[in-house]
Amino acid sequence: MSAIETLAAEIVEPARDLRLNLQSVLATSSLTVEQRWGVAVACAVASRNIRLQKAVIEDARAQVGAAVIDDAIAAAAIMGMNNVYYSFKHMIGKPSYGDHRAGLRMNRLAKPAGSKVDFELFAMAASAIGHCEWCIRAHEKVVVEGGVTEEQVHDAVRIASVIHGAAIALEVA
């Protein structure tokens, strides 16, 4: 039994759909194995449930290399920062804030350990959890221009939604 399956068994009965969805969205997808597991890791980190993070990372290690996992963790962390910053700029609606340079380090975004397009996909999925419209749109544009299909974007967001829902369900006593 995988670490995710073991953890999913702990999801309470009222949230049973999340238990079932967690297994299905990671089993089949239009995404490559690297994209699927990178999105899952990034979203588990972005969802901030340490038990889910550990289970997803453990299962990911059996499927993909360290570069994918490291890029996914980096994408989630950077989006944790960017989702706050760019959501504020978007929500405040004052053009004067657009004149300010972010001044935030994001070197890993420019030079990921693995695929640049995959890193952007991980960042987009984490940004869906972070509810940053600006970041979601920016990363979606890059991944589609990089050859990712809308079906693959859709599958990445499905994984993000289920991972986030499972993180919440696992907090229920």
Question: Can you give me a brief rundown of this structure?
Answer:
The protein has 173 residues and is mostly helical.
Can you put this structure into words, describing what you see?
The protein is an all-alpha fold. The chain has one domain (3-169): AhpD-like (Up-down Bundle). It is built from nine helices and no strands. The radius of gyration is 16 Å and the shape is globular. The mean pLDDT is 95.
CATH topology: AhpD-like
By CATH reckoning, the class would read Mainly Alpha
Number of strands: 0
Number of helices: 9
Kindly report the name of the CATH homologous superfamily: AhpD-like
Q: What is the rounded distance between the termini?
A: 23 Å
Mean pLDDT: 95
Instruction: Classify the helix fraction into a percent range.
Output: over 70%
Give me the secondary-structure category: mainly alpha
CATH architecture designation: Up-down Bundle
Rg calc = 16 Å
The largest β sheet comes out as: none
- Tell me the count of domains: 1
Helix and strand succession?
HHHHHHHHH
Proportion of beta-strand residues: under 5%
Backbone shape:
globular
User: Which regions are unreliable across 5 or more consecutive residues at pLDDT < 50?
Assistant: none
